[in-house]
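Hello,

Our lab assistant flagged a job as stuck in the queue for most of the afternoon. It eventually completed. Since we weren't sure the result was trustworthy after the delay, we are filing this so someone can double-check. Below is the sequence as submitted and the structure that was eventually returned. Let us know if re-running is recommended.
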Amino acid sequence: MDAQGRGRADDVDPADQWVLNPESGEYELRLPSSAPQSSVPGPRASGSRGAGAAGGAARARRTTAPARRPGASAPGGEPASPRRRAGAPAEPAAGRRGRRPAPQKSKGRKALMWTGGSLAFVLVGVSAAAYLYYEHLNDNITSVSDDGAGTGGFSKDRAINILLIGTDKRTGEGNEGYGDQGSSGHADTTLVLHVSKDRSNATVLSIPRDLITDIPDCPTTQEDGTEKVIPGKQRTRFNESLGQEDRTPSCTMRTITELTGLKMDHFMVADFNAVKTLTSAVGGVDVCLAKDIKDKDSKLDLPKGEHTIEGEEALAFVRTRHSVGFGGDLSRIELQQQFLGSLMRKLKSNDTLTSPGKMIKLAEAGTKALTVDSQISTIKKLADLGAELGKFDTKNLTFATVPVVDNPSETVKATVVLKQPQAQQLFAMVRDDVSLTEVKQQKKKEKDAEAARLKGSKAPASEVRVRILNGGAVAGSAQETLSWLQVREGVTKSENAGNAPAGLARTTLEYAPDQAAQARRLAEILGLSGSAMKPGESVDNSQGLPAMTLTLGKDFKGAGVPLTTPSKVPDDVRKSTADKVQCAK
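-- returned structure --
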């Protein structure tokens, strides 16, 4: 929807409404009584603001119900009332507008005003200063149901996964020339933010928009409150998971979970205005160009060197692709990662954190430009999330692009597919909370114990003799593994022994004491952990010769996909950290 003109009069700068109280020495928000709190009026409540069960029920409905277009009919055929932003309180009845007491300040709240996680401004779009005019910013927030695709809420005692979507829908003033004309929008830029359980590090995965994948069936809340299951689609572009065929962000969440195995906690959707308003709010973002760039499509025209960009120029920068790298979407992803890293550094700088004016402008810009899921549709919830997201250093925030290759089924290359096993290895690292930087490694004792189990001589692959059983893996896994071992790895003395007598949750390799060298070699080839190796007895294979027994459990992910989480990022994964200055090439 239009991100302009929401939450305040056009001629009122929120930064100018903060006044220094000479008695307390603190800044206070002075909203003029004539300044509107919302550009869209809401229905009147029958009692005082926020009082009573009816008020609570109304708030719940505004938070969880799908957004309705202005002027659309409500159920029953009557004209719908104009939409209010999620979390906005009902207007008090006439004669009940008593003046509010000033909020009580405390040292804790004062600290909250000017500190907190600055990553919240990039990924959540709200500052801690927003706390002091809670209702004003609540009225800016637009929310959409997650349709049960998320976890239901982040937790402070576990890792956090946030889906960030940049849509190419032409919402907002001045954006008529961007995106596809008449389109309902796509998942044009998609980022998966994973924040570690101990908050020491984070990973941002970029998902190429032209990646060929499967979109699952998507239960979706309609504008009238009913639910409709939008049929899935096989072997299609990832960017069709949003907007197309009435798919909402919850469908993109489901697609990400199917693709990566990561369950998302929340989503946030940004339109073109998010880049323009957020960069202007911080006074511009510093970028570096290794060459002159003149892109007629994005309209970016900058000479080689360092520049500070904001507004329309910043949007042109992140949309540029034909004039950088190989001229495709993967090159644009690298440019966007460089831009986000620079924006992070600007937000972490004292120039931003100590400026009340910038903090307020960031809060206004972020809450107007982003659409969030209904589980985090209030300033308090966003601030709580922002506090968790801001606990790590920028040097431990790693940007990585999911490894892909050109679609082999196309003559004219226009789409890509996952590059295996590198993609699955990367997904496994994120799922298992392994940092892509050096900040968080396995405990030394655990590493030493694992190394001890696998230490010792290893037999040549040609001497490894093993029978393969399927004990809970996908049908056909035993044969797939047999072919891979014989053709790719040279384990020619292997055979498919069919199904195991009982299912197993985890893959195991059982071997006799005199087969330890063979077991270590096979474990190395398969990526088995020491705990998967089970000393026991050998069995006779079809030739009557002693062999080990490999039983594929439910954790088996496919031939060539390691069952242990890698401790090192695959070589083919392009990555960078937010603290490094890079120049676009």
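-- support follow-up --
The delay was a queue issue, not a problem with the job. The result is valid. The first strand starts at residue 18 and ends at 21. The longest helix spans residues 329-348.
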